[in-house]
Design goal:
By secondary structure, the protein is an alpha/beta fold. It has two domains: about 170 residues, 3-Layer(aba) Sandwich (D-Maltodextrin-Binding Protein, domain 2); about 140 residues, D-Maltodextrin-Binding Protein, domain 2. Helix content is about 50%, strand content about 15%. The protein is built from twelve helices and eleven strands. It has a three-stranded antiparallel sheet with strand order 3-10-4. Strand 1, helix 2 and strand 2 form a beta-alpha-beta unit. The longest helix is centred in the C-terminal third of the chain and has 37 residues. It is globular. The N and C termini lie far apart (about 65 Å).
């Protein structure tokens, strides 16, 4: 018995020793990653330094992820091109920012009347989502490896200076709007612009835009939109769930050892859990504080307005399907997956109410 115990202990020590030696032998890796979202922002930003810390701890210090705040290393909307060209070897963003280059990109980020985060995760990791996501960048000639870094819950759909009761109230508005939802608003007569987070409040304050949407209640609160626009509209029809991406230059990715690649992917999965938990946990308090302390007036879109948004979205998606073959390929896959998921969704969950 003692011999068996001693042998077992020696084997464990040997395995641990080999693991330490293997980690010590790993080539040191520095990932320089500019960010689209400031680390001062809840969920979108403050989870990313924790991801970097996880990578460093899990790699025993062999991998360092150095983060650069938006605009410090390069402009946020240049991250994809810079990572692909090797100007930087990594970057954090969200795919819809590239829809001007690849119209289908927003399908991997968020889109009107799209999946909530549970359904989105199912498609990415158990459906064809990740395969199609990587194919999109490959087919467009981008030399990047894409990894999902986080998910966020449903967003608020806009901050307005006065109530929006009918479609006529939207016409002529200048509004910052994200992704494919912006195409819907354009069809409804809104002059849409895409601004990075750090420029939105100033644009609102100076009257460059009349209204905006951006993100979750606690993120919008941090950015101070309530100081200029008191009417906050729900639900987030344009973004029922959203994603964040980590882009790594593919040459850098291919030079990593399998262990290093596994560490990056495992830390990203851990950050997905963190981002979902944090986004779900923090919204109730932020919404309540906005009403009680900041005078925000929450409004829920009428059934007529939601029906109008959905009808207009159908027009936009039909146009994209007809015009862009890559969009159609991904859309068709999503449509099949969502039809199957719908059997479960309708039977498995209690109905929601507005109250």
């Amino acid at each position: 018995m003692k011999k068996n115990v001693t042998l077992t202990i020696l084997i464990v020590i040997l395995i641990l020793g080999l693991s330490v030696v293997a980690q010590a032998a790993e080539k040191k890796l520095l990932l320089k990653a500019p960010l689209v979202f400031s680390t001062a922002l809840p969920v979108l930003g403050d989870t990313v330094p924790e991801f970097a810390a996880d990578v460093k701890a899990m790699s025993n210090g062999n991998i360092t992820v150095k983060l650069y705040e938006p605009g410090k290393l390069l402009p946020p909307f240049e991250i994809l091109g810079a990572v692909s060209a090797g100007k930087v070897n990594a970057g954090c963003s969200t795919a819809a920012y590239w829809q001007g280059k690849m119209p289908e990109a927003a399908l991997f980020s968020a889109f009107p009347f799209g999946p909530e985060i549970d359904e989105y995760m199912a498609w990415f990791f158990e459906g064809n989502g990740m395969k199609l996501y990587q194919e999109m960048y490959d087919n467009a000639g981008y030399n990047v490896k894409v990894i999902v870094l986080g998910f966020i819950s449903a967003e608020t759909s806009g901050w307005f200076a006065k109530p929006i009761e009918t479609a006529d109230d939207l016409k002529g508005l200048k509004m910052r709007f994200f992704g494919l939802g912006g195409k819907v608003m354009q069809k409804l007569g809104v002059a849409v612009s895409m601004l990075p987070a750090g420029e939105i409040f100033q644009a609102l304050e100076k009257g460059v835009i009349d209204a905006t949407e951006f993100s979750l209640a606690n993120i919008d609160q941090k950015l101070g939109f309530y100081k200029v626009a008191k009417y906050n509209y729900w639900p987030g029809w344009h973004q029922p769930g959203g994603t964040q991406e980590l882009l790594i230059n593919k040459d850098t990715w291919n030079s990593m050892t399998p262990v290093q690649q596994a560490i990056i992917q495992s830390a990203a999965k851990q950050n997905i859990v963190r981002s979902i938990a944090r986004s779900e946990a923090q919204q109730g308090a932020a919404i309540r504080e906005n009403v009680e302390k900041r005078g925000v007036i929450n409004k829920y879109w009428s059934d007529d307005m939601l029906a109008l948004f959905e009808k207009t979205w159908k027009e936009v998606s039909d146009e994209h399907v007809a015009q862009y073959p890559e969009f159609k390929k991904i859309w068709d896959d999503l449509t099949v997956f969502r039809a199957e998921y719908d059997y479960w969704k309708k039977l498995g969950f209690l109905p929601r109410t507005k109250e």
